[in-house]
Every structure is written in C-alpha cells, then in structure tokens.
Amino acid sequence: MKKNIIISLVIVVILIFLFTISTYSNQYDFRKTNWGMSKKQVKATEKGEIAFEDEEEINYKVEINRSEFLCAYFFLEDKLYRSGYLLNETHTNENDYIDDYKNLKDILIKKYEKPVKDKIEWKNDSYKYDKIEWGLAISVGDLIYDTRWETNNTEITLRLSGDNYKIYLVLRYESKELKEWADKIIEERIKSSF
C-alpha cells in the first residue's frame, strides 16, 4: 500500500512538472507577445530601437544567429495578429541565402519539431541541374523554399523566395484564431478601394 502511494505521488509530481514546462514554453505566441495584444503592450516588450512605425506596423532591428533581421509586428484595430522576421542583409553570393534558410530551418525544427509542410518548388527548371545557379534561380522567382509548422495558436512559415533579382528570407508567425478576422478586414478594405 505504501509503495502504491509513493508511486502515485511520483506520478503526480511528474505530471505537475510536465504541465509547468509546457505552460512556460507556450507562454508567448511570438517573442514576448501574445496575439491580440495592443501596440502599446507590444512596444513594452521590446528593448530595441524602432526602425519603422505606422498605425498598423512596428519594425525593430534584431540579431538572430549572427544575422540582422527586421522584426515586424502587424496590427489591425490595435490587435496584434501577425508578426515575423525579414533578413536585413545582402549576400554577394546568392547561394548564401540558401545556407541562411537551412540554418534557420534547423533551429526551428529543434524548437517546433517536424514541420507540417516542407517543400522546394521549381517554377522553371532552367537552373535546376546547376546548383551554383540556385541563388540566381531564387532571385528571379524560379525556385522557392517553403517550410511550415503549427502550434496550438500559431502558423509559422519559413520562406525563401525572390522576384526581380531580389531575394527574401521571411519567417512569419500568424495567429490561427485571428486569421479569418484579419482576412475579412483586409478584404473589405480592398473592396472599398474600387
């Protein structure tokens, strides 16, 4: 009987510990913020200098893995609904962007585990068989790297793409709960433009 009580207590302690770890690790949706926070609340969480700000967006310069990114927060009706990072560096060797993508992807896999989507898409395979030209293929929009994870509250997308000889490495976080609401507001704005 005493042995059963001890086993039960150990199980309870383990469950409390696991619950505490899971609650702490899921405390925030993005950096030190949660979806639906006001602009003022988000600004209180960031220590860096603001690089850009308007009514619906705030950008900060941040460093991740020794690279400079713009950290962006997007608001509608003073509610945070989307955020993310945009690489704010230029490489002379365009293939270096692929290395940046892979490094970020490895970090994200350690944090969020296996992605729900992991795709490399060739829109035009002119450069497909010449790996040295893959950076160029990205810059003209022929090659796209796209990986996605999901948490309870958030859809996370890492994307390496390009257009017009410019390459974009973007890591986007979007509220699952507020996505439909935000899409409707944006759609209404577009309709009212005509």
Q: Strand order, main sheet: write it out.
A: 1-2-3-4-8-7-6-5
Share of helix, binned:
25-40%
- Give the overall silhouette: globular
SSE order, as H and E? Answer: HHEEEEHEHEEEH
Low-confidence stretches: 7-25
Number of domains: 1
Largest sheet: 8 strands, antiparallel
Question: What is the CA–CA distance across the termini?
Answer: 76 Å
Number of helices: 5
Q: Could you tell me the number of beta strands?
A: 8
Structural class: alpha+beta
Compute the gyration radius: what is it? 21 Å
Mean pLDDT: 90
Which percent range describes the beta-strand content? 25-35%
Describe the protein in words.
There is one protein chain. With 194 residues, the protein is of the alpha+beta class. It has one domain. Helices cover 37% and strands 34% of the residues. The protein is built from five helices and eight strands; from the N terminus they run ααββββαβαβββα. The longest helix is centred in the N-terminal third of the chain and has 24 residues, at 2-25. The protein is globular. The termini are far apart. Mean pLDDT is 90; it is low at 7-25.
